[in-house]
Design goal:
single chain; 170 residues; globular
Length: 170
């Protein structure tokens, strides 16, 4: 009888540990995806951006450096080569738009044997045309691969990063 209770107690404790560890992983990886989306798509005040300076400093500008903290060098190279962040900021500044995320949903797609995990995100943006006070909602989709490097979850590949160009057109 005691062996049965001990065995059942061991199973319950093991299950709780596994559930707790996986929920910590999910929370940590989702935080990285949210942080990336926020850094990628938020521009509080387009007037504060000096595009000449950003273009001269690129890829060592403040906007690329923000992403550097949550991505590996290889992943950062992808975003630099594609110039995705630079193009997005340039659009916003040229059309006098402020942008912020209103909501984001994150879905775990697959886990690989190498420890990496593919996540998809769907972010809803509020684009505010400062000159006309017009607000538009826009949705962007993206996919990121995350992996644990030195005990931190970081982006190892930018599989897909959208720039909402059709809503930006007046």
């Amino acid at each position: 009888m005691r062996k049965g209770i001990y065995f059942l107690l061991c199973i319950v404790v093991t299950t709780l540990l596994l559930v707790g560890c996986s929920s910590n992983k999910e929370a940590a990886t989702e935080a990285v995806v949210k942080e990336f989306a926020t850094k990628m798509y938020t521009l509080e005040d387009y007037k504060a951006v000096d595009m000449k300076k950003v273009n001269l400093e690129y890829p060592k500008d403040q906007y690329t450096n923000e992403i550097k903290t949550i991505a590996t060098e290889g992943a950062l190279e992808e975003i630099i080569v594609d110039r995705t962040k630079l193009i997005y900021i340039d659009y916003l500044c040229a059309l006098h738009i402020n942008s912020k995320i209103t909501s984001i949903t994150i879905d775990k797609q697959t886990s690989e044997t190498d420890g990496s995990t593919l996540y998809s995100y769907n972010a809803k943006l509020k684009l505010t045309y400062v000159d006309t006070k017009v607000e538009k909602e826009e949705e962007v989709l993206g996919q990121l691969t995350l992996n644990k490097v030195k005990n931190n979850w970081v982006i190892t590949k930018f599989n897909k990063v959208d720039v909402p160009t059709h809503a930006i057109k007046k």
